[in-house]
């Protein structure tokens, strides 16, 4: 893969100049995926489809008629909870291990319409329920920055979109789709040293994204650079008649040609300086705040008082919606079906017992408990009220500042053996601390890599903005990206 450029625009320029063609790029990429199988980034490689798409793209470039001057022939990967026509979509669960959709998710379809080449599906925590990419029927994904990939000595990729993050970080594709319910795009992006964007709720269609938490789920974008992220966002954003949650106003393409920070008002939330924040992350946070201030931005402290409650609220609402969404998996119409079907009740029970792992079962049980008539007011309704207060924290903050600057994760990527010592619920409470409140408020958030820790692992920060402020976040992110020049680390990494 060392022969290939790092950026989307660079590879597209190579296609235009005929110094490379999509076919040779796909062949090199497929060989690299095979060599790096140990990472377990891909759960299914669409070899035949990718080669066919590459040949079609080559013909278009030979006629100087690409579908999109930036994306035609560019390799992408898709998290395995997005439906892909004719290609297995499993959610890394036994429940759907043989499910082949008859249609593609809107965001996947829009990428392919622009000429992007789908290499395959990437690993995740089962049904997106996790923050390490370790709870999959295909096994854990290994972070490509790990010092040691053997046994339990590797670093986690982050989750739940860990496979997509590793695919991009390891140079196996130029962009990948993840999903983000409480940080599932930004968390692995942080640990893997790439850019991860969680857009405003409703900006990207959720049609074809197998739901976890309908009120928080959004498709996420993972790339190596801010510019690449903007290119993908411009291709897939906008209204969709098949998804009633998308905003109806037309999407105006984002431009990054005037990145500047002078006069920008940057807020530093005090509550994000929390217990467990690693010293090196704090130093990274301080460094970037100082960079912004020296460039003419106004950096001020702000308060987000309900941040401390947000992880508990998120946990309750997550499990309530999970219990509802998982009810569709009953062994009747699609998915795994138990052979023990003496009665309808037994079929349901055995199918779910066999098809779901313990993490999914626990969330279903907890959600049903919270939704019991005697508990509804005490848990679910109260959580909805606090969610409103969390959203109002952001409204007040954005009256005084333009963006918020926070850590993405509290440390660099943990070792797998250390990560699995805690249960899924406890790990999510730690890993999602800085990220999940953005989902409850529906606002956009961007994670970008800043530097390497003393262990030579990526450290990242997060930018959050008001609804539909993606262009501002990406412009500020592009300025920071240029100042810190993290991309230079990829020469060594690859």
Q: Which range does the strand content fall in?
A: 5-15%
Q: Regions with pLDDT < 50 over 5+ consecutive residues?
A: none
Helix content: 40-55%
* Broad shape: globular
Task: Summarize the biggest pleated sheet.
Answer: 11 strands, mixed
Strand order of the largest sheet: 1-3-2-4-6-5-10-11-9-7-8
β-strand number:
11
Radius of gyration: 21 Å
Distance between the first and last residues' Cα = 8 Å
Structural class given helices, strands, pairing?
alpha/beta
Taken in chain order, the helices and strands follow as HHEHEHEHEHEEHEHEHHHHEHHHEEHH
Helical segment count? 17
Mean pLDDT: 95
Task: Give the structure's gist in a few sentences.
With 494 residues, the protein is an alpha/beta fold. 40% of the residues lie in helices and 13% in strands.
Structural commentary:
- The protein is α/β, with parallel strands linked by helices and 494 residues long.
- The chain has 17 helices and eleven strands.
- The protein starts with 7 loop residues before the first helix and ends with a helix.
What is this structure's SSE topology?
Layout: H1 8-17, H2 22-35, E1 42-45, H3 47-62, E2 75-79, H4 106-113, E3 117-122, H5 162-169, E4 175-180, H6 186-192, E5 195-198, E6 218-223, H7 226-236, E7 265-269, H8 279-294, E8 298-302, H9 307-325, H10 344-355, H11 358-370, H12 373-400, E9 403-407, H13 416-419, H14 424-431, H15 436-441, E10 445-452, E11 458-465, H16 470-484, H17 489-493
Parallel strand pairs: 2-3, 2-4, 7-8, 7-9
Antiparallel strand pairs: 1-3, 4-6, 5-6, 5-10, 9-11, 10-11
Helix pairs in contact: 2-3, 5-6, 7-16, 9-11, 9-12
